[in-house]
Structure formats: structure tokens, C-alpha cells
């Protein structure tokens, strides 16, 4: 675990990694929607439900948490306290990391929002 | 050049003379309109969009007058339908989106300490396209030929030529033209934010306005193209009778609704976020402190952008889709309220922590926040699907959307107007008139739209030209009508205030004591944008950096001169804004205007079915584009130049370091998104029709594969050409380009062979194959043009192994072309016939 | 332009009676509309509380002296008020509302009513389980206390079927059939209206809804199954001579046709022209001669050649169809 975290902390957040958590939400959301739509239209019921959906949701949540944890690690790179507004490499890094962490939080909640209908409705009617 | 050199006033005066000369606007009755400077183009753009807003407002007043009493007959049903269609379309396409682009064209270079945006001529092209398309669409109502199918244009009402006339074509083609210019502006703004920041302005120091603009421009890239794809299918049905939305021949009206709302919902946030961005600039100024929670705002902007693409089906809650599908979108529609809440509370917390300087712009900001919160709360309500089944398409939704758009777009813009007017004209507007206008508008807005919640719940559907007295909603409607006149009066007061501005005296520089770069502008504005490009060390450099203003003014930062007599600005790296190069900007030119006229003629002539002339217009457009491009990516007279402080920057970059490469990449992202809209159509028909493709002989597998092979060969040859060219083998690269072009031609004709025996008018299956193939071969044709253009550049000596931007840019295009060819030919060849 | 029309617009006397009882989501007569009203009231209370709280907070924030809160405290406000509390409230609302999306269970024995939207009228077909179907138009009767399944589609363009007092709306889309399952609870006369913009006379596309006690409904439906009680005479002759039977069917009198609304029991309906005009002889006669004056864009051709007497005779004949 520790080694893994060390390796993760060597990854550097950029503008591209910033959008990883919401992209995971988008993929999860789109996949859920298309899968339900096609299944309902073609076979009249939601095939492979709920096992596959549960697995997919857990994977999405794990990916989001992982990117959030990596970002959290990097946002704690030593330096001055928030609000990270100095013109230094470290502050830019910590800003991006902190934003990524926040986005991971929002994406996590958004995936839970997507899962809620499945728990409560879960069929094609 | 050392710092000391700038101590010499004579030197500074000489520099200023040179800068003034270089940035001098063209004069003369006609030539002044060939200007491309962001200051002027932005102002034209803003005024035009403002004019369209007033026009659409008048349309609304006529509607409200008609609805003042039950069973009224002031205007006919026909006129009323044109009125509400144009009101919505003009407010969305000709006011809200262009206004954000216009304001950004003015502000962004100032905020980023740049002399201009990276592609000034593209801005000018966007403006002229907007003007031509806008006048074409809005003017149609004076000929009783305006679109009358609602701003959402649902087929089959709008695609059946017996049910809707020319208006539908005017909407589709006129607004497609404007969508193209919006995408052009998005390209400009993205590259501007990512590549044209001043040295040192790392991502964490960027003004929040720039963050919002970046996010919104990226949203445009993904939101507008699906609508362009939908427009294409729509016009194919209207002009060529291809049955994409005709249920009798396998089409489905719902496909349009999907494509429209995949555009339509992000659109709401596209017009909302830039106005919130204005808040993010104003609030710190009037709280006289840094904005609290900078990363939280970035989170909110990026999060909203993503979530907004997962909301579109909430406009389709009543279309009978499976409940589970609706529930997903209901959930996402609730979730999107979270980032919005974050933004609002970040602003409130900033005001709380700071020392509030009460002022007219802040009055507008707080008023709009109040209006917006009400709209947001009703938004949370209609996002709940069961409630929406009642509220949908009633006046409740009319009330909701106007609260959101007025609170989230219009009033913030008016606040921004009061805030930024001194920046643009050097004069403040009247605080007194501004307050009077605000309070009249504020009362008018609430009197107009609040009763609509109730009239909707009392059973009044939207888009009705009249309603019966028995519904007992006459008094609610009368209140709304009275309110609308009050609202209009407030707008009138504001217009009077603007009109009085020329009579007023200049205000001091930076009258609000703001901390961000744009306030470096002098009351008597110089056209050079900024005297010297500063080194940024803070989010609010005017407040935080010592002697900042004086250093900028005395040219003590970068690029204080224009020795070669060229318009220039600095290009920096994306993350940390490290200086990369100096680019030469296009000066005044008639080319953008002429190109816009040529492209406009294609759309307008097609509306009137003058296909031959439209084709000529297309050829003219191509010629104009090539004529325009021929001057770009020039090889500089020297490899690099000094920018001060002992730094030397390259004058030429190719590949990802160059703004042009990014422009191509971003444009192709939009292109690929439009294409994916068409592919979505193909799989959509397969999903909804169990018998999709049955009973038809498709193109088979062989023909598409035969078309795919040369298309990929053309891509590979171009790629190899780029590599060998970089290694100095110019002749070989030229031969490879010729080979690539030849292969693209072969691919083009082989692609057309896939269509043998398929009649697109019979059924949607052959029709959608036609569209995919036409899209692909059209891209092959463009590939040929690009390859031959690059060849010509090489032969003309405008490209050599160290100056190969053209070749690198077309390689980007070829990547996307190859992807398009693979998806098209794989789809039509292998799916669904082989039973995959 | 506005003066004349606004001048005559005196504030209606109904100022105090906000609600109408027959086309309002706030005056439900069906179970689904009642559920949704309940949901709405809960959300309304929540919205008022939130809007008030935000306004007060904003006022307080603007008036607070400089440095009234520290950076840390400000960030806690953003986190809690902007992030966590909205998340919890919205999630709760979503979870509370999702069960309302479940459609009412329906059995094969339940009455089906097929309704097709046409420009600008409603084609109605009652399909009771195990009995022959009955054609009608522009008026819908349903039994109270029983589940009814509407099967909705459209002939030409997209329409939307909306009876505000009964349930939410459902679109009618060419090439698709959507189900709307409802249950009426209170007998009475109500009104429904097209809610999706469908062309020139979108505003003039309504219908009467009559909820009846089950026994009365069964008797009524049995009556509808009988052919028309048509009288011979001038009106019948004109109906045939002017080709009315080419589009309009009168069961037992004319050959079946499905182009225009079924007129078999025309005289028993309360309104004319899809819920727009009262069913009086003068209105029927006037509508026959110039339908486009009442409904712009109507598909029915006008018959200006008919004299006043002829039009009245035709109207008498049609109103006799009960």
C-alpha cells in the first residue's frame, strides 16, 4: 500500500488528469443509460441487472476514489498554506491537485445519484 | 535590452510611436470595417447582439399584448407562432451565445495581458457570419416568412414541407451558419486561454473569467456539433426527402429531439456560466479582497460542464421512454444543482469576509442572484420527473426558464455593462439611472414571470396564441403583460443611460479599484492592448505586485516594442505559462468579411433551392479560405527576437507548440463530435427498430473495405511525408503528398461505390448510409485540397523542414479523417448485417 | 398597437377565485394528479424556506464589516452550505420522488382507450376487454375507481395528451405508442388540452373529459356501441351530397372512414371542434361553412356555398345524432 502510494505521488496532476473523475462519471452514466435503453428496447427487460451494474458502479467509484486520493496526496505537497495563489510550481501543482480532489468528490456523489434510480426502480416499466 | 533602457523617455516615446503605428486602425468609409482588432470587433459584436436582444424583446411584448386577455385576436395564430419561434431563437442564438463571445473577445486579451487574441481575423470572420446569418433569420419576419415551428423545431411538423414553409429552412440554414461562427469563436477562445497568457500566469493564477471561458468554449465544441448533425439530417429530409424523421419510412421523430437537446441543455449552461464569470470578476472588486475558494469555483465550472451533458433527456420526460432512463436524467439534473450552490455560496462568503463597497454593478449582481435562486429552485422541481409530467410545456416552465435566463444571463450582463463600461469607453454610466433601471426591471421581471408559475399549474400550455376565459387565468396573464411593459421600460431607461454616455466626462483609470489585469486599460484607450506584457505573480496583480501599473506603462516588462512593424503577442505554455514564442497576428483585412459573405451565400442560396448558385458560393468560399490561409504560417525574417530582460523567443513554432496546431486539433474535435451525432443516429435506428436494415441489400462488406484501404493509405502517406520532410527529404515528402492525395481521390470514388443500388428516399436505412458515406467522402475531398495546398506551399518556398506547420496541421486533420473512415466503413459494412 | 386591446381588458371579476376546477393541476380528480400535487407542495415549502434563507444570508453578508469571517470560516460555509447540505437535501428529494415514477399496475381486463392526436382533434377508440371497440372523437369518458390504460399515438405530427386534473402529460409521437395508466376518483366534467406545439391551431386542440361512476359508464359505453339514430331529411341529403361522408363516419349510416372525426354520437357531446365551441346549432352551422375562421390550419375544407338554411339543416341533422 505504501509503495503504491509512493508511486502514485510521483504521477503529476495536469489539466488532463483534472478531468479524470468527471470523465469516469460520464462513462458510467452513459453506459448505464445506453445499456438500459438498448436492453429495454431489444429484450424488454434490463439484462444482466443488477450484478453487472453493481460491479460497474463499484469500479467507477474505486477509480474516482483512487484519483481523489492521489490528488489529495499531491495537494499536501509541502509549502505555504492555502489558498495556493503563489506563482510557483508547487502552488500550481497543489491547486490542480486540490481541484481534482474536489471534482472527485462531486463525481463520487454524482455516481451515487446515478445509482439511486437503479436501486429504487431497476426495471423497464 | 536591460531595465535601464526603459528609463529613457525618448526611447519609450519612440516605442510608443511604433506600437501606435502598427496597431493603427484602418480608416475610411469602407476600410474601417476591415479592422480585426479585438477592441473594435468585440464592440461591433456586442452592439449587434444587444440590438438582437432588443428586437427579440419587442417580439415578446407583442406576444404579451396578445395574451393580455382571453380569446384575444390582436395577432393571428400564424403571426404568433412566428413571434415565439423567433423570440426564443433570437434570444438564444443571436443574443445569449454571441453576447458571451463578444464580451470575451473584448475582455479576454485584456485579462490575459495579450495584445490581441491569437486569430484576430477569425474573430472578424465570426462577427460577419453572425451579422449576415442573424439579419437573414431575424429579418424573415418582415416578409411573413419567419420560422414558426418553435425554437426546438420538432419534426415531423417542421420537416413536412406541406406543413411548414420556407421558415423552417431559414431557421435550419441560417442558424447552422451562425453555429459555425460560434464554433470558430470557441476555437479562438480556447487557444487564447491556453496559449496566450502572459508569462508567469500559471493555471492557478488565471482570472476566473478565463477559467469559465475555457470551460464554456469546450462545452460549445461538444454541444453545438450534434445540432449541426441534426440540422444536416433535417435539411436532407426537407430538401431531398430522405426519411430520417418520417415514421412511415423507418425514421423516428425522437432522434431529432435527442440531437437537439444534447445541444439544448448544455446550451443553457453555455449562456449561464459566462455571466457567473462576470460575477467572479465583480465580487472581489466590490468586496475588495480575493475571491474565496478559487479551486471550488474551478470545480463548479468543470463539474457543471460535465454534468450538463447528462441532462438532455429531462426535456423529454414526457416522450414515453422507459422510466429507468428518465430516472437517470432526473438524478443528474438534481446533481447539477450542487456545483451551482457551491458558486453562489463562494460569492456570498467572499462578500461576507470582505468590506462591501455598495455600487450599481453589485446591485445588479445581487438582484440577479435573487432572481436566479428562484429559477434554480423551480429547476430542481421540474427535474423531478413526476412533477415535470405536469409542469412540462406549460407556463410553469416558461416562468422557470425566464427566471434562470434573466437571473443567470441578462441581469449579470447588465451588471457587467455597468462594471465594464468605463473599461471600454473610459466613462462611467450614471449610478442613478442604473439604479432606477434596475428597480423598474426587477419589479417588472417578477410581475411578468411570477404569475406564470400559477397560470401553468392552472392548465395553461406553452406556445398557445390564445386561451379560453373559462380557465380563469385572464388576471394572471394581465399581470404578466403589465409586468412585461414595466420590464421593457426598465430596459429603455438603461438604453437611455447608454445613449447619454458620450456627453459625460472621462472617469479615472481603474475607477472601481479592481485588482485584475484588464483594468490596466487607460480611459483614452490605445489600440495596442497593453503597453508591455507583464510577468504575473498573483491572481490580483494590480493589488499585489509592487509598482505593477507603472512597470507595465513604462514598458519594463516584455515585448515593449514593435521593431519590425508587426502586430505581435507572446505565446506561453499551457500549465505554467512559460514563454514559448512570439507570434505575428493578422492585421486589418477584407478577407474575413468576403469569406463570410461567400459562406453565407452558400447557406442562403440553398434556402431558396438555388443549388447551382450555392455550389458556386461553395467554390468561392474554398477559394477565399485558401487565399486567406496563404499568408498564414509565414517563415519569419529571423529565427527569434528579443522581448526584453535578455530573453529571446522564437518567431516560428510548429506542432503542439503553435496556436495553429491547437486550432486545427480543436476544430477537428468539433468535427468528430458532429460526426458522432450521425453515427449515433445509425445505432439509434438499430436500437428502436427490430427490423433495421431488413429487406434491403446493404453495401456488403467488400465495397466498404475497398473504400477504407485507400483512405487509410492516404493517411499513412501523409504521416510518412511529415516524418521524411522533418528529416530534410523535401522531394520525397512532396511525392508522398501527391501519393496521399491520389489515394484520397481513390478512397472518395470507392466510397461512393458503396451507395450503388441504395435509394435514400425509400427507407431510413439506405438514407443514413448515404449520409455517413457522404460525410466521409466529403472529408476525403477536403483531404485532397489540404494535401495539394501543402504541396503548393512547399513549392512556393513557404514551407521547409524547419518551418513545417502546414504539414503538421494537415496531419492532425488526417488522423481524424482516418478515424472517420474507419468508423463509417466498419459500421456500414459489418453492422448490423453480420449479426454483431 | 396595444392601446385598444388593453383598454378593454378590465381586470376580470374572478380575481379572487384563482383556481378553475376543470383544467388545473391543483384541483385533481385522479390519483396520479393528487400524488403529484402532494409532491409539489412538499417541494414548494422547501423552496420557500431555501429562498428565504439564502436571501437573509446574502443580506447579512453584504452588511457584515470587513473581516467578519476568516478565510477558514468562509471555506466552511462554502463546503457545508454550498456542498454538503445541498447534496443531502437533493439526494433525499430524489429518493423520495423516485417511487412516484412507478406506473400504476395494469391488468389485461382493464379498459384500454386508444387516443390518436391529429391536427387539430383527437381520435378516440374505446377497447373494453372482451368486447368490440367503439369509435369516438374529441371527448373522453372514463369510469371512476377503475384503472384505465390510454394508448397514445399520433397520425401526423407530435402532440401531447394532457388532462391536468387526472395525471401528468404524455407525448403522442407518430410511429410510437405510449401508455398512460390512470385512475379517476371524482366524477365530473373536466378538460384536457394538447400540450406539445403542433401547428397553427395548437391552442385550439382541447377535449372534454367526463369521469362517471362505473355503472353509469358501462351503460353509456353500451349505448355508444349502438349505431347512430339518424333521421332522414334535408340534413341527411346535404351530408351525402356535399361529400361529408368521405371523411366523417356515422356508424350504421355511412361507410367506415377514418379521415375526420367520427360523428356517430356527435349530438351527445358537449362541445364542438375539439373542445372549442359550445354545441349549439348556430355554432355547428357556422363551423361547417367556415371552419378555418374558428381553427386556423384546420384540415376540413370550408363550405361557403351552403346557404344559412342549408347549414342549419345540416347542423340539426348532426345534433340529432345521439
From TrEMBL, chain A:
UniProt keyword list: Membrane, Transmembrane, Transmembrane helix
Annotated transmembrane regions: 12-35, 47-72, 93-120
Keyword Membrane: yes
Designated name of the protein: Transmembrane protein
Organism: Sphingomonas pseudosanguinis
Automatic annotation (TrEMBL), chain B:
Assigned EC number: 7.1.1.9
Residues forming coiled coils: none
Domain Cytochrome oxidase subunit I profile: start-end pairs: 17-519
EC top class named in words: translocase
One annotated GO biological process: respiratory electron transport chain
Cellular component terms per the entry's GO annotation: plasma membrane
Membrane topology of this protein: Multi-pass membrane protein
Location(s), subcellular: Cell membrane
Primary localization: membrane
Family assignment from sequence similarity: Belongs to the heme-copper respiratory oxidase family.
Signal sequence coordinates: none
Molecular function GO terms recorded: cytochrome-c oxidase activity; heme binding; metal ion binding
Keywords: Cell membrane, Copper, Electron transport, Heme, Iron, Membrane, Metal-binding, Respiratory chain, Translocase, Transmembrane, Transmembrane helix, Transport
Source organism superkingdom: Bacteria
Annotated InterPro entries: Cyt_c_oxase-like_su1_dom, Cyt_c_oxase-like_su1_sf, Cyt_C_Oxase_1, Cyt_c_Oxase_su1_BS, Cyt_c_oxidase_su1_bac, Cyt_c_oxidase_su3-like_sf, Cyt_c_oxidase_su3_a-hlx
TM region(s), chain numbering: 42-63, 83-112, 124-146, 170-194, 206-228, 268-287, 294-314, 326-350, 362-387, 399-421, 433-454, 474-500, 585-604, 610-630, 661-685, 701-720, 732-752, 764-789, 810-831
Protein's name in the database: cytochrome-c oxidase
From TrEMBL, chain C:
Membrane-topology annotation of the record: Multi-pass membrane protein
Gene Ontology cellular component list: membrane
Alphabetical keyword list: Copper, Electron transport, Heme, Iron, Membrane, Metal-binding, Respiratory chain, Transmembrane, Transmembrane helix, Transport
UniProt keyword annotation of Cytoplasm present: no
Annotated Cytochrome c domain residues: 230-322
Entry keyword annotation includes DNA-binding: no
InterPro entries hit by this protein: CcO_II, CcO_II-like_C, Copper_CuA, Cupredoxin, CuRO_CcO_Caa3_II, Cyt_c-like_dom, Cyt_c-like_dom_sf, Cyt_c_oxidase_su2
Cellular localization per UniProt: Membrane
Coiled coil: none
PANTHER family named in the record: CYTOCHROME C OXIDASE SUBUNIT 2, CYTOCHROME C OXIDASE, SUBUNIT II
Family statement drawn from the similarity comment of this UniProt entry: Belongs to the cytochrome c oxidase subunit 2 family.
Role of this protein: Subunits I and II form the functional core of the enzyme complex. Electrons originating in cytochrome c are transferred via heme a and Cu(A) to the binuclear center formed by heme a3 and Cu(B).
Protein name, as recorded: Cytochrome aa3 subunit 2
Organism the protein comes from: Sphingomonas pseudosanguinis
